[in-house]
TrEMBL record:
It catalyses: L-kynurenine + NADPH + O2 + H(+) = 3-hydroxy-L-kynurenine + NADP(+) + H2O. It is found in: Mitochondrion outer membrane. Its EC number is 1.14.13.9. Its main location: mitochondrion. The chain crosses the membrane at residues 405-427, 442-463. This is Kynurenine 3-monooxygenase. The gene is BNA4. One of its GO terms (cellular component) is mitochondrial outer membrane. The keyword rRNA-binding does not apply. One of its GO terms (molecular function) is FAD binding. Catalyzes the hydroxylation of L-kynurenine (L-Kyn) to form 3-hydroxy-L-kynurenine (L-3OHKyn). Required for synthesis of quinolinic acid. It comes from Coemansia aciculifera. Pfam families: FAD_binding_3 (PF01494). Residues 5-343 form the FAD-binding domain.
Length: 479
């Protein structure tokens, strides 16, 4: 077996999945994570400024399946299906909106539970070493060397490998260093909204609301959402402009705000618990990042949020990061097999082949990750306001009917993003085509209806309208 090694920086969701993939393909893996090991009981509640649970859908499952179908099954066991959105009106009325006409659904899974499964899977390979409390300080890509600081001892150490993978999140240091080596186009944008999480405890040992929905309280410029947890609680997240967060300074003001906007949720959370959490829980910012390329020569690649952080409104950040890992593996394997090799060990790639695989990955992936970053932004407007507009509901109904009749020709946007692996950029192209045809059909139907009504009225009134009568004659001859 060819000796090839990889240093992975970041042991979050994407870094730990990447460790499993590289290990499966025979690479010696060293993973460095600056935080503690979340699998240790005393560190199990460590979720710094991030959602406690998240939605996993087809792209995420597909990446797990390719690695190991048993791993996918294990994650499915941990997950709670959410078949649709439950829209909560101000008067407490709840309306269910199914995600898909064929019953496909997304799933709520605990962030730490998922990381634990992935770290255990990575740990099961004897050629993987997980180093916790090791923070990346610097990288010398051309020397293929990462410098890390051990938080326990304060000592610095160097770690060398054939490939350096940056899976160190939205504020990636690997990406920062890469920018000094390549002409990277890069943008980072904060949206004007932040978020704060709350818990909704079970009532009489049962879920306080229907557990098989993602609950939304859309209120125009802000919204509250809730996802179920296996312990029968919900994690609720308030997304709101910072200026509104700033206006709520006291517990009474928080209660007043919730009472005015989310009275049913407040009753289920309890005023005391909501107030305590509003005061105690961190308010997170929401940032999106686009950059290209994602690679440097055959030395380094960035994956997950490090390459494409996005706002969380499509529930795709992690799913897309998992898909990155799957796509990279597909390309590396295809490059190896195109050279005539039947091996599945990508350690066999020559330096030139590795370069060509990384170039291809970066060239193809950036368009897709940019596309989902944009889609995620658009979906915020949909979640916080469109979901209750008549035009949105009408289009949803119409698309549902057409999708049922022509499942491969008309596919709702949400279905393409969440329940298929159609590349994100192709999703946008198909959506634009569908929108064009839908608009043309609506215009044609409206024009036909108006013309028909005109003809009928003219006939009924016995009006002498030569032009209309001429049209009527043509129609009556042809049909
Ligand atoms: P991260 O999760 O940020 O992990 C990076 C890791 O690198 C961390 O463990 C960090 O400690 C480590 N690290 C950072 N710097 C260093 C360093 N210098 N040295 C060593 N280690 C380092 N996505 C979905 O798919 N579905 C959802 O429903 C969803 N909901 C979300 C809700 C919210 C409120 C937010 C904020 C995000 C949500 N996301 C969701 C997005 C998802 O959380 C991210 O896309 C995902 O966590 C990205 O994983 P990652 O491993 O790339 O980065």
């Amino acid at each position: 077996m060819a000796e090839r090694s990889v240093v992975i920086v970041g042991g979050g969701l994407v870094g730990s999945l990447a460790a499993c993939y590289f290990a499966k393909r025979g690479w010696k893996v060293d993973l460095y994570e600056k935080r503690q090991d979340v699998r240790q009981p005393e560190h199990s509640c460590l979720v710094e400024h991030r959602s406690i649970n998240l939605a996993i859908s087809e792209r995420g499952f597909s990446a797990l399946r390719r690695l190991d179908p048993l791993l996918e099954a294990r994650v499915r066991e941990l997950a709670i299906p959410m078949h649709g959105r439950m829209i909560h009106a101000l008067d407490g009325k709840q309306t269910s909106q199914a995600y898909d006409v064929f019953g496909k659904h997304i799933n709520s899974v605990g962030r730490n539970a998922l990381i634990r499964v992935l770290l255990d899977a990575a740990d099961s390979y004897s050629w993987v070493t997980l180093h916790f409390r090791h923070e990346l300080v610097d990288v010398d890509f051309d020397a293929r060397r990462a410098t890390l600081r051990n938080a326990e001892t304060g000592h610095q150490l160097d770690s060398s490998a054939d490939l350096i993978v940056g899976a160190d999140g939205a504020y990636s240091r690997v990406r920062q260093r890469m920018m000094t080596k390549v002409m990277m186009n890069y943008s980072q944008t904060y949206i004007e909204h932040g978020y704060c999480e709350f818990s909704m405890a079970p009532i009489n040992d049962a879920f306080a609301m229907d557990p098989n929905h993602l609950h939304i309280w859309p209120r125009g410029s802000f919204m509250l959402i809730a996802l179920p947890n296996p312990d029968k609680s919900f994690t609720c997240t308030l997304f709101m402009p910072w200026r509104q967060f700033d206006q709520i300074k006291t517990g009474d003001e928080a209660v007043g705000f919730f009472r005015a906007n989310f009275p049913d949720a407040l009753d289920l959370m309890g005023e005391k618990s909501m107030c305590a959490e509003y005061a105690r829980n961190p308010k997170g910012s929401l940032v999106y990042v686009k950059c290209t390329p994602h690679t440097y020569k055959n030395c380094a690649v960035i994956l997950g949020d490090a390459a494409h952080a996005m706002v969380p409104f499509y529930g795709q950040g992690m799913n897309c990061g998992f898909e990155d890992v799957e796509k990279l593996d597909e390309i590396m394997l295809a490059t190896l097999q195109a050279s005539g090799s039947e091996s599945t060990e990508t350690t066999q790639l020559t330096d030139e082949q590795l370069l060509s695989a990384l170039d291809e990955y970066s060239a193809t992936r950036a368009a897709d990750t940019d596309a989902i970053v944009d889609l995620a932004l658009d979906n915020y407007v949909e979640m916080r306001s469109s979901v209750i507009s008549y035009s949105y509901l009408l289009r949803k109904q119409l698309e549902g009917i057409l999708h049922r009749l022509f499942p491969t020709f008309v596919i709702p946007l949400y279905t393409m993003v969440s329940f298929t692996s159609i590349p994100y950029a192709a999703v946008i192209r198909q959506w634009n085509r569908q929108t064009l045809w839908l608009h043309r059909s609506i215009y044609a139907a409206t024009a036909t209806a108006v013309l028909g009504a005109g003809l009928i009225s003219a006939q009924l009134l016995g009006l002498r309208m030569p032009a209309l009568n001429q049209v009527a004659r043509i129609f009556s001859h042809n049909y």
